[in-house]
Write a structure and sequence with these properties.
Helix content is 40%, strand content 11%. The chain is α/β, with parallel strands linked by helices. The chain folds into two domains: 145 residues, Rossmann fold (3-Layer(aba) Sandwich); 68 residues, DNA polymerase, domain 1, CATH 1.10.150. The longest helix is centred in the middle third of the chain and has 18 residues. The chain is elongated, with a radius of gyration of 18 Å.
Length: 238
């Protein structure tokens, strides 16, 4: 295991009770299906395709923003409203039909989830992906069974980087934020955890708009989910 930090952050709890885990770029490599559906959409609209490597930098703020990025080629570009509405409907149709064709759990994910479950941690999946895509994806890849709670991008009025989903999960499990940990891949995850008052671990292989996750200064970077249990033991003395 490659240690990103050898010290225990002051905010790391002595007793971790719940682990919240991001989906896209953390649990599942969804970029191939997201890119495939983006290109199906662009083809219907008469636009040129985009490479999966580019789409990987666009992931993390939900499907509507992904569609806008595909249409404009810009991170925060705003296409004409009628075009966007048409494109979003096309994308949603394709993604609903192909949500798990090419997507697969990252190495260490199944092992890591099983370890955390066996250790008695309460597990929640916190994602900005809409529920209509989140639940089929988790179920199709046999990951849904590990989670007691799944919060999607449209489950609550606000999504990450707002801390609301994290705080809602804490309330659901009857714990305070200092007894939860978020595992993610992006600066959105780090920002949400900081705002919620809980520690955050990140994986280095995720999307994060093409930036090194270490630049966001999470409490630690773990090589895979299979290392999370070991990190929690290191920090909490378990």
């Amino acid at each position: 295991m490659k240690e990103a930090t050898a010290r225990r952050p002051a905010q790391f709890p002595l007793t971790v009770k719940m682990v919240m885990i991001d989906l896209d770029g953390t649990l599942i490599h969804t970029a191939p299906d997201l890119a495939d559906c983006a290109n199906r959409m662009l083809a219907e609209l008469g636009h040129a395709p985009v490479p999966v490597e580019t789409v990987m930098t666009w992931i993390g703020n939900g499907v509507p923003r992904l569609v806008k990025r595909a249409l404009t080629g810009e991170m925060w570009g705003e296409p004409e409203t009628a075009l966007f509405d048409k494109a979003l409907a096309i994308y949603q149709r394709h993604y609903a039909a192909h949500v798990s064709d090419l997507s697969r759990p990252f190495p260490g994910v199944v092992e890591g989830l099983a370890q955390l479950k066996a250790r008695g941690y309460r597990l929640a999946c916190i994602t900005n992906k809409a529920e209509a895509f989140t639940l089929p994806l988790l179920k199709n890849l046999d990951l849904h069974k590990y989670f007691e709670l799944v919060l999607s991008g449209d489950s609550l009025p606000k999504q990450k980087p707002d801390p609301l989903p994290l705080r809602h999960a804490c309330q659901h499990f009857g714990i305070t934020p200092d007894h939860g940990v978020l595992v993610g891949d992006s600066s959105n995850d780090v920002e949400a955890a900081r705002a919620a008052g809980m520690p955050v671990l990140c994986v280095p292989y995720g999307y994060n708009h093409g930036h090194d996750i270490r630049e966001a200064h999470p409490d630690a970077v773990v090589d895979s989910l299979a290392e999370v249990d070991r990190h929690l033991a290191l920090y909490t003395g378990a």
